[in-house]
Amino acid sequence: MKKLIAGNWKMHKTQKEAVETVTALVEMVSPLPEDREVLILPPYTSLSSVWNVIKDKQGFFLGGQNFYPAENGAFTGEISADMLLDVGCSFSLVGHSERRKYFKETDEFINQKVLFGLRKGLKIILCIGEELKERKEGKVFDVLKTQLLKGLKGVSSEDIENKLCIAYEPVWAIGTGEVATEDQIQEAHSLIRDLLIEMFDDKGKNIKILYGGSVSPENIKTILPISNVNGVLVGGASLEPEKFSKIILA
Ligand code: PGA
After folding, report:
1. Ligand 1 pocket test: which of 96, 165, 185, 215 has the largest number of ligand atoms within 8 Å of its C-beta?
2. The overall pTM is greater than 0.85
3. 3-state helix, strand, coil in the chain (%, to 5)
4. pLDDT, tens digit, 9 for 90 and up, residues 123-170
């Protein structure tokens, strides 16, 4: 399975900055190693400009950070799955912890997005992960299981062939510089793998599980080889081509 290295730019970069960043990045990592795929998740306003730079580059993909689960309509400030597909996206994140926290997204709403996005032909990266308090209370398994079961409710094995990824992002490790330990990552990813196999039989074995939370050029070499880690979702370190290229080439 190729390792998917995704860069979530969150609310960073104007179009000019986005194009400069991705142009420098492509130059630094080309030719991309056979076993790597790179996904760039810029803000909506830079999707088209980033797509123009990467569309002919082997192994590079574009994704949205979010979308609204309706065809179109009176949803001021939102964008649709078709709009993402229209500007070159093949992926979208769903249920990032910042969406859950600041925009009060529930597992039920996240599930609507998963179902809608898959139906539209977007590849979905469903983000899950526990808060520090939940970890301290020994609830990691319960939290991950609930988020997975609710987030993927009504999704069938036929729907997911090559179209679903899970990102395990412990909330306490996002943007904090505090990365989960190898044991914590290994344990969470194997729990997730077992649940996916329970839900989707053999097809659950092929779903990529990404780790996210303070991934950096310094820790990537210990994270990527962990079993059931099929890639990483990188925030802060993906904003700088020097750092992100080291993560991609690790
Ligand atoms: P971080 O963000 O790498 O800055 O911790 C990860 C994420 O939010 O996806």
Report:
1. 215
2. yes
3. 45, 20, 35
4. 999 999 999 999 999 999 999 999 999 999 999 998 898 899 999 999
